[in-house]
Structures
1.
Amino acid sequence: MPRPLGELEDAVMTRVWQWNRPVTVREVLEDLQQERSIAYTTVMTVMDNLHQKGWVRREVEGRAYRYTAVSTRAAYAAALMNEAWAQSDNPAAALVAFFGMMSQDQREALNDAIRIVQRDNPLPAPPEEGAEGTGPQER
């Protein structure tokens, strides 16, 4: 389970996820500097930490690295939700409480997601009565 990203790690990963292409420290720095005063070495250290933690992969290009996200923001959010749910001593109650916090738009998105999962991964049909392995059969 991924540990939640820190505030600066999240700011960096947000850019990597949004841009959805290999990025340099310089590009991330320049974008972050529109919001805050931050040093090149700070961004470089954060991106190196994200690489060490497995959030990004990097490839050398000239004298710099280009960083690419290993997974999507959606996968990160899903892993966090799954971990939180797994920590509950009553998962069903946790889901009910979570669903109760959702807006109407979020509930509609949830219903859409359920339909997609059911379409792509249908449950197997129950065995037919008298089929092999389902009980006594007539001879």
Note: The longest helix spans residues 104-120.
2.
Amino acid sequence: MEKSWKEAIKKVLTESVIPLHYTEISGQILSRGYYETDGATPAATVNAQIAASIKHDGEKSPFIRVGRGVFTLKNPPS
């Protein structure tokens, strides 16, 4: 299990060959056991984590938005 939502999000996006909607990201995090939460709205948490990273980290954020609610990694592994 990952230490944080952000790490779990990065892991899911690393494993995906296509950009994903934040609801898909949260579903994969929970189904794969990358992070556990008792929160009622994990998809909203994922969206907030990614948006906060993009807003506050700017160029240093590992995420980019490619559509409405759809994200990928800025530098995907090759």
Note: The radius of gyration is 11 Å.
